[in-house]
Amino acid sequence: MDGKRTVAEQLATALAPILGVERLPVRLQAWDGTVAGPDDAPLVVLRSPQAIRRIVWTRDELGLARAYVAGEIDVEGDLYAPFAALTSTGRLAPGESPAPSLGERLGLLRTGLALGLLGREPAPPPEEVRLRRYGRLHSRRRDAVAVSHHYDLGNEFYRLVLGPSMVYSCAVWDDPGVGLEAAQEAKLDLICRKLALRSGSRLLDVGCGWGSLALHAAREYGATVVGVTLSEEQAALARKRVAEAGLAGSVEIRVEDYREVEDGPFDAISSVGMAEHVGRSQLPGYATTLHDLLRPGGRLLNHAIAWVGPRTRRNDDTFITRYVFPDGDLVGLGDMIDALASSGLEVTDVEPLRRHYALTLRAWVANLEANWAGAVAAAGVGRARVWRLYMVASALAFEVGKLGVNQVLLQRPGGAPPPLRRDWV
After folding, report:
1. What is the 8-class DSSP label of residue 402?
2. Phi, psi of 5 (to 5 degrees)
3. CA 409 to chain CA mean position, Å
4. In terms of Cα–Cα distance, which of 50, 61, 51 is closest to 18?
5. Would you say residue 46 has pLDDT above 80?
6. Tens of pLDDT along 321-337?
7. What is the pLDDT of residue 85?
């Protein structure tokens, strides 16, 4: 032992510079029961020396994430509190920051050696995705595999997290007290109004999920809907929901890549939470494909998360891309608008919904935690921990402005004049 300092005290001293802070803003409990840090700070528990090995071997927060997924680092009580404390300053704060220096990493290495903790690099938890196995980036085959990894996790798991609406995108909240289901219905209705749907309108829903928007458009607006997804499990449940609603004559759900749709033109196209999977290099082709599927005067609503600020690191080195959204690629709002407009579509409205997504994610986390045993039974404890970490981190990122989400409404030239906002408010 280093003098009279406990294991927890030595680790707290060594970990602080790795995280870019003078002193850890959390209370740290080591596997031997020793504790370091303020009594009133959020408690982080190191359950295994393996957590330190992961941090030593990995240059950034990926090591911490791997340790959390594996259960080697845990939090007692509210996960938001320690995460917020660690992201308020230092290297986990919003925005880009330099990786730990060699000297800072050597400090943790020396502490690990002194405590007899170090060894070879641990294998990543089995929940981690190895992207190189899937072939050419954003080929149709690789996109299908990436989408399956995320969305074929199990319909029961998603039911427990998303609630009865089965909508996996940002809701629109009149106020925080309306509840998740009402906020999701408000979002679905807002999209239908922005697209000017009416009886007989033909809608293509790209990335249709479990069919919630398609059902709403057909039931409430009399639209005829084609929904496409790459997820077999989503499609199976969406078809079941369509049949149960008596809307089989109005809604068709296909397992199909949007690049393969050939039965245009459509009066309207919705793309909600799907463009994040397209990839920056593929956005011009995505925009052109959707432009060509619209009739003259037809409208496209593109609802997508946006990265705020510069990107300076490889996208496939993050927790989100390795565990949650393989090959996911967030671009800034300006880049998204440029790509969409370059196809000849006219931008008619942009609505930011950043604060709404923070509320939505907090509601999903509350559902997950309230149904934890069922979620673990449905997807396994590792995957449930992945989702809890990713949704908590994302909620905080939206709250502080590191991430945004925007609805961009566009129109193919010709036909009716572009809409006025009062047309849907």
Report:
1. S
2. -80, 140
3. 22
4. 61
5. yes
6. 889 988 888 999 999 99
7. 84
53 contacts 117 by C-beta, under 8 angstroms: yes
Dihedral Cα 150, 176, 76, 123, nearest 10 deg: 20
SS3 154: coil
The one-character DSSP state at 260 is G
Name the token pair of 216.
Answer: 């709403």
SS (H, E, C) 102-120: HHHHHHHHHHHHHCCCCCC
The Cβ-side half-sphere exposure at 63, using a 13 Å CA radius, reads 20
Given a cut of 60, is residue 94 above it in pLDDT? no
91 DSSP assignment: G
**Neighbouring residues of 288: CB distance < 8 A, sequence distance ≥ 6:** 343
Do residues 183 and 212 touch, judged by C-beta distance below 8 A? no
In angstroms, the CA 51 to CA 47 distance is 8
Both tokens of 374, joined, read 């069922």
Give the SS3 label for residue 128: coil
Decide: 333 and 306 in contact? Cβ < 8 Å.
Answer: yes
Question: For the chain, what's the residue count?
Answer: 425
User: In what order do the strands lie in the sheet containing 202-206?
Assistant: 251-255, 224-229, 202-206, 266-272, 294-307, 403-411, 346-352
| The pair of three-digit structure tokens given for residue 96, joined into one six-digit string | 């880009």
Closest CA to 250 of 187, 199, 301: 199
Pairing between strand 202-206 and 266-272?
A: parallel
Q: What is the pLDDT of residue 130?
A: 65
User: Is 335 exposed, middle or buried, given 0-12, 13-18 or 19+ CB atoms closer than 10 A?
Assistant: middle
Model confidence band, residue 59 (pLDDT cutoffs 50, 70, 90): low
Domain parsing of the chain, residue ranges: 7-114, 140-423
Question: Under a CB-based contact definition with an 8 Å cutoff, are residues 282 and 259 in contact?
Answer: no
C-alpha 198/C-alpha 20 separation (Å) is 55
Question: What is the pLDDT of the chain when averaged over all its residues?
Answer: 90
CATH annotation of 140-423: 3.40.50.150
CB within 8 Å of 245: residues ≥ 6 apart: 215, 219
